[in-house]
Amino acid sequence: MAQAQSILLVTSDPEAVQPVRRSLALLQPVQTLCLTDPRDDAIRHMLAHGDGVSVIVSDVVPRGVDIVRGLRGLLDPFRLLKTPILCLVTRTSPRDEVQAWALGASAVLATGSTSGALVAAVRGMLQPGETHPGLQPPELERQLAVAVTDVGVAVADMLSSAKQGGRISTPAIAEASGSMLQGIGTVGISAWMRLVSEVDDQTYRHCMMVAGFVAAFAMSLGFSHGDCDRLTRAALMHDIGKAFIPLDILNKPGPLDATQAALMRSHACLGDDLLRAQGGHGEMTLDVVRHHHEHLDGSGYPDGLSGRGISDPVRIATICDIFAALIERRAYKSPMTDAEAFQIMRGMTGKLDMQLLTMFGRLFARPMPRSA
Ligand SMILES: [Fe+2]
Ligand SMILES: [Fe+2]
């Protein structure tokens, strides 16, 4: 029986390589191996059965006798198996690039490249149909799988640009929104969610789920294409302020203390501040980014808006945001069923727009897939 395929990420700094790991996980499960600490049993098992590795990505700087020897010893068996090897190299050091080729690299890419460039390079090295394991997709689903990865890349690049103080690429978000509306409009929200639920990173997955629900909901409400597009873009960006929240708080496997919760809540203002400072983002996006945690009874944050002070796009985004959060798997909770999520949301009378919630419920004539 064919072994499940993983990308093997070889590094000398497991902490610094996290952004690379998160991007690669959009394509396949990722096993990280620290070159100087190869003790992980799962990794050793995989190395002993080399056919479980689809692609190797190395961000190790190939300098120093011990490092080069260790890297060569690790990579040689894979070269024999013809496993593709992508080496991330410092463009300012031609010597490192030459060393990477000498170690058997199939391709090299500059360290610090965008998620898009990284995912495109690795996707080109995977066999057709290898992404999103477990699916044997016909052509339409294969296209949707590519769209899901591309949207994930747009979200990854958006969050890393935000964190590094770079400019958010509105064309990339617009392209992601277009892919989603076309994909969901063609194969439906269930197929989209089935693929998105396999995205490993919690923050990327959440943005993609919320945007997926918003796109499907807006289309079902008969909004114009322009309005569906604006709303979907806003949903993709709704949690952009989480780029500034430390990962150990975002992924904490338990309740947040008061200080951590306050920091987490600040993401709404941080996202709004960032987009306003950059300029060029529509009012609907700014409104959704700042206000998607407001409640009709004034109990939400950050501005304690109430009733008519909360716009329809925000009401829609809030419903999709809460629903997605309830049915998602998170580090600190199991996923709920749709029925359980709706039951909780129906209990939020006074906080949510119940008329919109009823209409949202009609999207789910068929059972939704669960995140595994
Ligand atoms: Fe949020
Ligand atoms: Fe959210």
Automatic annotation (TrEMBL):
The modification 4-aspartylphosphate is found at D59. It comes from Lichenicoccus roseus. Residues 6-126 form the Response regulatory domain. GO terms for biological process: phosphorelay signal transduction system. GO terms for molecular function: phosphoric diester hydrolase activity. The keyword Phosphoprotein applies. This is HD domain-containing protein. Keywords: Phosphoprotein. It comes from the Bacteria. PROSITE patterns: HD_GYP, RESPONSE_REGULATORY. Residues 181-372 form the HD-GYP domain.
